[in-house]
Amino acid sequence: MKQHTKKFFAVFSDDDEVVPQENKKLFEERLGAKTAMEHAKGHFSGGDGVKELPVILEAILSQEPPIF
Fold first, then answer.
1. C-beta neighbour count of 62 within 10 angstroms
2. Which residues partner with 6 through β-bridges?
3. Which residue from 68, 58, 34 is spatially nearest to 12, judged by alpha carbons?
4. What is the rounded CA–CA span in Å between residue 2 and residue 38?
């Protein structure tokens, strides 16, 4: 993945039953990813009640140069 992408941003939830929280550190160390930990968002699905993730929009808009 690193050879095809320069920047990584990954979002994790503290109560995700599918993706372990430990993956956050792996993404940071192995991919140099910026990460965010959200509270009580499950696996970020509609079934978990997640319909918006402002942290993603903020990450995209904060890129230099902007990504559009």
1. 11
2. none
3. 34
4. 24
Beta carbons within 8 Å of 68's beta carbon, 6+ residues apart: none
The ranges assigned to domains in the chain are 9-61
- pLDDT above 60: residue 68: no
Q: Cα separation of 10 and 36, whole Å?
A: 6
Give residue-wise pLDDT tens across range 28-39: 999 999 999 999
- How many residues does the structure list for the chain? 68
Q: Which pTM value belongs to this model?
A: 0.83
Task: Find residue 37's DSSP bridge partners.
Answer: 12
Query: In angstroms, rounded to a whole number, what is the distance separating the alpha carbons of residues 65 and 29?
Result: 24
Residues 6+ apart with CB under 8 A from 46: none
